[in-house]
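Table S2 (text version). Query chain:
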Amino acid sequence: MARVLDPFPRIFLLAALLVVYGAAAALGIAEAESFVVAICASFGVPLSVVWWIERDATQTHYRPAFHYGLYLLWFWPIAVPHYVLRTRGARGLPLAALLLMAISSPYIGWFVGYLLWPVVWGNPTE
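Corresponding structure-token output:
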């Protein structure tokens, strides 16, 4: 069986792009969010993580339910760390944290942009 690829190249490239776009959108530098960007930000990284876990589950032989992918997509804050810790033990904590940060990347980018607003554009109350 072919070795499962690490999730980092594709998932984290998309996550990094979404962080940059989220920060630029919060700062008012990027154009108004298009429908494609909204769909990509909402479902791109979570679906990539679910697909990676689905493929990795075939190697680890961990399939707790028939609709496990749907469970992962709906309850990712609980399900992703559960899967990683169940299949890799304590050494999977960094991977679980990175996957959760990747899924949250659009919100992290927006928050960074919100924090940088006074630095870039100045305080609006002054």
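Notes on Table S2: Residues 9-121 form one domain. The longest helix spans residues 35-60.
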